[in-house]
C-alpha cells in the first residue's frame, strides 16, 4: 500500500510503498477514503509532541473509510477514525489501509460524505467541549470568537448561536463579552483581555498566532477573568460522547464545515496550505 512516512524529526514526510497491515485482535482494518491534514500533524512531525511515536511513523490523526476486517464492525461499514494514539503514539491515517484500535473507530452516517467524516471530529468536538464543558455557556451570554474564519472558530460560532448566545463580532472595552473563545493565541490573546467583562472567562483553544503570550497580571486580577485551556486529549471522552449528535447536526445542515481536498500525493502541499494565515476549512487527502 501507499503510505506517507516521517523518518526524522523536522523533516517532511516521504511517500512510500509498504506491505499491507494484517488483521489482529482488538484492531479494525479500514480502507481509507479520506484523511485529514491538521496542525497537530505539523507539531508531531517537528518532534515537539509529549509522547512522539517511534520513527519512522505515518502521520494523520483523523480519517474516514470502509471497514475491511474487524471483530467489532461488519465489513463494508462506513466509519470515522480518531484517537487511540493514531498519528501521535502509533502510525496514523495517511495510508491506503489503516490499522486502527477498535476504540478509535466510530460509525459514519450514510448522509455524511467521507471528507466531512474525516474532518469533523477535531473542530466540532473542540467547539462543543469548549462551550458546553469548559466555559459552561449559558443562553443570553455575550460571546466572541477569535479566528472565526477557521474550522474551530466557525463551528464555535454556529454552536453558540444555536444554543442561544449573543454573538459579538468585534469585542472591545466598550462592547465586552462574557466569554471569549480564542483559537489563535499569541498577541491576539494579550490584546483581548480588556474586551472581557468583569468576571468573564477566556477559553484558549489554539495558538496559531503564537505560542508565547505576555499578560498584564494586574489587569487579569482586576477584571477577575478566568483563563481556561482546552485540552482535548484529556477531554476526549466528552468529545466522543458528543460525536453522534454533531454528525446529526452536520447531516441536517444545522452545522456546516468547509473542506479543501487534496490528492494522496499532495500531502506536503496540504501541510503548506494549513500553515497559511486566513485559510478556510480543513485540509483533507481524498483517496478516490
Report on the architecture of this protein.
With 288 residues, the protein is an alpha/beta fold. The protein has 2 domains: 2-120 and 257-286, Alpha-Beta Complex (Quinone Oxidoreductase, Chain A, domain 1), CATH 3.90.180; 123-229, NAD(P)-binding Rossmann-like Domain (Rossmann fold). Helices cover 27% and strands 26% of the residues. The chain has 8 helices and 14 strands. Strands 3, 4, 5, 6, 7, 13 and 14 form a 7-stranded mixed beta sheet that branches. A 5-stranded parallel beta sheet has the order 9-8-10-11-12, with helices on both faces. β8, α4 (151-162) and β9 form a beta-alpha-beta unit. α3 packs across α4 and α3 (121-134) packs across α7. The longest helix is centred in the last third of the chain and has 16 residues, at 236-251. The radius of gyration is 19 Å and the shape is globular. The two termini are 14 Å apart. The mean pLDDT is 93.
According to CATH, the fold-level topology of the largest domain is Quinone Oxidoreductase, Chain A, domain 1
DSSP strand (E) fraction? Answer: 25-35%
User: Mean pLDDT, rounded to whole units?
Assistant: 93
- Output the helix-strand order: EEEHEEEEHHEHEEHEHEHEHE
Number of continuous helical runs: 8
Helical coverage, percent range: 25-40%
Query: If you compute it from the alpha carbons, what radius of gyration comes out, rounded to the nearest whole angstrom?
Result: 19 Å
Mind telling me the CATH class of the largest domain? Alpha Beta
What structural category arises from helix and sheet content? Answer: alpha/beta
Which runs of at least 5 residues are low in confidence (pLDDT < 50)? Answer: none
CATH superfamily of the largest domain: Medium-chain alcohol dehydrogenases, catalytic domain
What's the end-to-end separation, in Å? 14 Å
Total beta strand runs: 14
Rough outline: globular
* Integer tally of domains: 2
What is the CATH architecture annotation of the largest domain? Alpha-Beta Complex
Pfam family, one: ADH_zinc_N_2
InterPro entries: ADH-like_N, ER, GroES-like_sf, NAD(P)-bd_dom_sf, Zn-ADH-like_protein
GO molecular function: oxidoreductase activity
Protein name: NADPH2:quinone reductase
Amino acid at each position: 500500500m501507499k503510505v506517507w512516512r516521517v523518518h526524522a524529526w523536522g523533516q517532511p514526510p516521504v511517500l512510500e510503498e509498504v506491505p499491507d497491515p494484517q488483521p489482529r485482535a482488538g484492531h479494525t482494518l479500514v480502507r481509507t477514503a479520506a484523511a485529514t491534514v491538521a496542525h497537530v500533524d505539523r507539531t508531531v512531525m517537528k518532534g515537539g509532541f509529549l509522547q512522539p511515536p517511534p520513527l519512522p511513523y505515518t502521520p494523520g490523526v483523523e480519517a474516514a473509510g470502509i471497514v475491511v476486517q474487524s471483530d467489532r464492525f461488519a465489513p463494508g461499514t462506513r466509519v470515522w477514525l480518531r484517537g487511540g494514539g493514531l498519528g501521535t503514539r502509533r502510525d496514523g491515517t495517511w495510508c491506503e489501509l489503516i490499522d486502527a484500535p477498535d476504540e478509535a473507530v466510530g460509525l459514519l452516517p450514510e448522509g455524511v460524505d467521507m471528507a466531512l467524516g474525516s474532518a469533523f471530529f477535531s473542530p466540532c468536538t473542540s467547539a462543543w467541549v469548549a462551550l458546553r464543558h469548559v466555559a459552561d455557556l449559558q443562553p443570553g451570554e455575550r460571546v466572541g470568537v477569535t479566528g472565526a474564519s477557521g474550522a474551530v472558530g466557525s463551528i464555535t460560532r454556529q454552536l453558540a448561536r444555536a444554543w442561544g448566545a449573543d454573538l459579538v463580532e468585534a469585542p472591545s472595552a466598550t462592547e465586552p463579552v462574557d466569554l471569549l473563545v480564542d483559537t489563535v493565541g499569541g498577541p491576539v490573546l494579550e490584546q483581548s483581555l480588556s474586551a472581557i467583562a468583569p468576571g468573564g472567562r477566556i477559553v484558549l483553544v489554539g495558538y496559531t498566532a503564537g505560542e508565547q503570550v505576555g499578560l498584564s497580571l494586574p489587569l487579569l486580577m482586576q477584571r477577575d477573568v478566568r483563563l481556561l485551556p482546552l485540552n482535548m486529549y484529556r477531554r476526549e471522552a466528552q468529545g466522543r460522547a458528543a460525536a453522534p449528535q454533531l454528525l446529526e447536526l452536520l447531516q441536517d445542515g444545522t452545522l456546516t464545515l468547509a473542506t479543501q481536498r487534496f490528492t494522496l500525493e499532495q500531502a506536503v502541499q496540504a501541510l503548506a496550505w494549513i500553515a497559511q494565515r486566513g485559510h478556510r476549512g480543513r485540509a483533507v487527502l481524498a483517496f478516490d
